[in-house]
C-alpha cells in the first residue's frame, strides 16, 4: 500500500514536471507568434532578424542562464564563426571607429526606408555604453567604456579580445545582451577593427 502511494506520488511529481515544460513551450510559441505578427507584414519588410538561430533559441529557452555544458557549447560555436580582417589587422583607425560607434543607421526590423547600399551601417554603441567622456547621451545597459585603453593597455591580447567581443559578443558571454555585430552582418571586419582602435588607441578621446 505504502509502495503504491509512493509510486503514485512519484508519478504525479513527474507529470507535474511534464506539464510545466508543456506550459513553457506553449507560452514560448505564443510569444513567438506575437513577435512574428507584431510588425507590419508584407513586401519590403525586413523581418528576417526575428528568426532565432540555435544560440538565441537556447538562450531564450534557458532565460539566458543555460547549464554550464550548453554555455560552453554556445561560446565555442560562436567563436568559430568569427571572421578577421583580410590583413589580420584587428586595430584600425580610431577616427573612423568614432563614427561607427556613434552612428545608429541600418538593420532595422521592419522598414522605415530600405538601407542604402552606399551608406555604411553603424553600431549605435552609445545606446548601451558610455565611451568618449564628452558624449553625454549614453546608455548604461553595458558597462562604461571610458578609459578602456588606459586601463587595459593596447597589447595584442587586448586588441584580439576586443575585436572578438565586438564581432561576436556571445563568444565571451554565452547569452550576452550585446548584439553580435560582425556575426549578424551589421558591421564589416574593417569597421570592427576601427571600433577596436576607438577603444584602445591612446590617441582616441576615449582614453583622454
Ligand atoms: C544592447 C546593448 C548593447 C549595445 C548596443 C552594445 N553593447 Fe557592448 N556590451 C553590452 C553589455 C550588456 C556588455 C556586458 C556583458 C558582456 O560582456 O557581454 C557589453 C560589453 C562590451 C564590451 C566588453 C567590455 C569589457 O569590460 O570587457 C565591449 C568592448 C563592448 N561591449 C563594445 C561595444 C561596442 C563597440 C558596441 C557598438 C558596436 C557595443 N558594445 C554595443 C551591451 C551592448
SSE layout and pairings?
Blueprint: H1 2-37, H2 54-61, H3 68-79, H4 94-102, H5 148-152, H6 156-167, H7 189-200
Helix pairs in contact: 4-7, 6-7
Heme C binds next to helix 6.
Protein name: Sulfur-oxidizing protein SoxX
InterPro entries: Cyt_c-like_dom, Cyt_c-like_dom_sf, Thiosulf_SoxX, Thiosulf_SoxX_II
GO molecular function: electron transfer activity; heme binding; metal ion binding
Can you give me a brief rundown of this structure?
With 208 residues, the chain is mostly helical. The protein has helices spanning 2-37, 54-61, 68-79, 94-102, 148-152, 156-167, 189-200.
**CATH architecture designation of the largest domain:** Orthogonal Bundle
Q: How many domains comprise the coordinates? A: 2
Number of helices: 7
Low-confidence runs (pLDDT<50, min 5 residues)? none
Query: Average pLDDT, to the nearest integer?
Result: 89
Cα shape? globular
Helix-and-strand structural type: mainly alpha
Helical content band: 40-55%
* CATH homolog superfamily of the largest domain: Cytochrome c-like domain
The end-to-end distance, rounded to whole angstroms, is 78 Å
CATH topology of the largest domain: Cytochrome Bc1 Complex, Chain D, domain 2
Largest sheet: none
The percentage of residues in β strands lies in: under 5%
Number of strand elements: 0
Protein name: Sulfur-oxidizing protein SoxX
Pfam families: Cytochrom_C (PF00034)
Signal peptide: 1-20
GO molecular function: electron transfer activity; heme binding; metal ion binding
